[in-house]
Design a protein that fits this description.
- α1 packs parallel to α3 and α4 packs across α6.
- With 162 residues, this protein is mainly alpha-helical.
- The strands form 2 sheets. The chain has a two-stranded parallel ribbon with strand order 1-4. The protein has a two-stranded antiparallel ribbon with strand order 2-3.
- It folds into 2 domains: 90 residues, no CATH class; 71 residues, Tetracycline Repressor, domain 2, CATH 1.10.357.
- The protein is built from 6 helices and 4 strands.
């Protein structure tokens, strides 16, 4: 695995793409509040709802695409504060993913200062959208987590020098 040049851009989306591990659909589970979630997508989609039974149905779904489909329903009311909390929920889940899976942490840190973009053709919020001008919130979160991990490693290195 080589480090990309600092000025490069890394695009990820499909499971066949390089850096597909960055996707919320990638098969890397997270433990949040003593519950195991198969993927970040499972966790994130379930957080849209206060209905505990429905959240559990999402958590137990077999595939991330099934979790997403369940999360897209409007038959169950979304939590009232969803728009205000969704970015923080995503940040926390991504943080946990990269702290849990050391190989993913190494991969993320290996990207140097490259721009990370979720090349999601139909998502202009979390990804770059159909025209490439989306908000790329997931890419921004990944770069933020990368910076946090880098700072933590630098601090640990400094502490070990004492």
């Amino acid at each position: 695995m080589s480090t990309p040049p600092s000025s490069s851009t890394i695009y990820f989306y499909a499971q066949t793409d390089a850096y597909s591990e960055f996707s919320n659909f990638a098969p890397f589970g997270v433990s949040v509040e003593d519950q195991w979630w198969r993927t970040v997508e499972h966790y994130f989609q379930a957080q849209k709802f206060h209905n505990a039974e429905y959240r559990e149905r999402i958590r137990l779904s077999n595939k991330p695409k099934d979790a997403k489909a369940l999360g897209m329903t409007r038959k169950i009311p979304l939590r009232d504060d969803w728009e205000e909390v969704k970015d923080q929920i995503m940040l926390e889940a991504v943080r946990i993913k990269f702290k849990t899976h050391v190989d993913l942490k190494v991969l993320l840190l290996s990207t140097g200062d490259a721009q990370i973009v979720e090349n999601a053709p139909m998502d202009s919020y979390w990804g770059c959208g159909p025209d490439g001008n989306g908000l790329n919130k997931l890419g921004e979160i990944l770069m933020h987590v990368r910076d946090e991990l880098r700072q933590k490693e630098s601090q640990e290195d400094a502490d070990s020098q004492r």
